[in-house]
Amino acid sequence: MSLSIYKLQTFLNSAVGVGGAKQQRPFCLLQLSFKHTIPMARSALDEMSATGAFVRTPSTFRNLISRDPNSPFPAEAERYHLYISYACPWASRCLAYLMIKGLDKCISFTSVKPKWERTKEADEHMGWVFPASSSEEAGADPDPFNGAKSARELYEIASTNYSGKYTVPVLWDKKLNTIVNNESSEIIRMLNTEFNHLAENPELDLYPSHLQDQINEINGWIYDDINNGVYKCGFAKKQEPYNEAVKKLYEALDKAEEILNKQRYLCGGTVTEADVRLFVTLIRFDEVYAVHFKCNKKLLREYPNLFNYTKDIFQIPGVSSTVNMEHIKKHYYGSHPSINPFGIIPQGPDIDYSSPHDRARFSK
């Protein structure tokens, strides 16, 4: 039994009782998966099908934090830490939730360096690494709790048998010294509801019950064709998968443009989870995806509604602090040598997303 599992078992035994009446106290015990033996891709660049198409593998740590104090992972102040990369859109949407919900005082976070580097001397794996000091890379800091040199080390602390990708975000439990969850779509749901007693903006509900069906439907095509769609374009190794991905990408962007011609946000007059999920791709589109991932059929700036909408979301208090364009460009142009072998970073277009937008016309 690993140390992390031993700590968790001791915690659960004390919480629910072993061999006594307390065992019957109802609480939600989620399956805690700290052992992983199925071989998986080591980075996104390895996730290829036989047809040359990019196929993203699922996240593997899927435990949930709950407001229930009897849960294995209760929502407590200063217990959890979020490891992110400003470059990664999946991690950035978690950081956006942390900031707009006002949870940054009770859940700390650390960013890795933007450019992938060797994670171990023993092999050739390239991935997210921490700087040696806070002065090494602006915006990135050393791991403050485990002294890990890379995100890979965090996964190895949590599970000695882990063989999957070493991705961010990582939601870390400082008490049990393990990973709670590394699936961004689940992390943002937890941040939306489970910490409201600690949040500065508890009234902000980005996944309200009356809009959940609509949000889920929109999330489906935005994820498949836009969020993940740009990666399908960029990582395709054959022409046909690229052609198919580009077609679906621009059909989805056209669809979003049409929706936003009639209302301020994707689900109406209120910002929701769907908007945050779309925003993290749009903010990277002209700066990176149009060039690096060959998504150049039409720029974001050529979509009047989407472009102004992106500025609108960027200007929500807290969101702009989650966008570090220097990290974004350093990562994409510097971490994929099969796409950009010389690592040259384009100078433009340097869009000012803090400039005025026209979306307030829908509030009249």
From TrEMBL:
GO molecular function: glutathione transferase activity
CDD domains, per database record: GST_C_Omega_like
Protein name per the record: GST C-terminal domain-containing protein
GO CC annotation terms, alphabetical: cytoplasm
Binding site for glutathione: 128, 165-168, 183-184
Domain of life: Eukaryota
Domain GST C-terminal: 208-332
Residues with site note (Lowers pKa of active site Cys): 289, 332
InterPro entries according to UniProt: Glutathione-S-Trfase_C-like, Glutathione-S-Trfase_C_sf, Glutathione_S-Trfase, Glutathione_S-Trfase_N, GST_Omega-like_C, GST_Omega/GSH, Thioredoxin-like_sf
PANTHER family: GLUTATHIONE S-TRANSFERASE OMEGA-LIKE 1-RELATED, GLUTATHIONYL-HYDROQUINONE REDUCTASE
Gene source species: Coffea canephora (Robusta coffee)
Transmembrane segment boundaries: none
Active site (record annotation): 88 (nucleophile), 231 (proton donor/acceptor)
PROSITE patterns, A to Z: GST_CTER
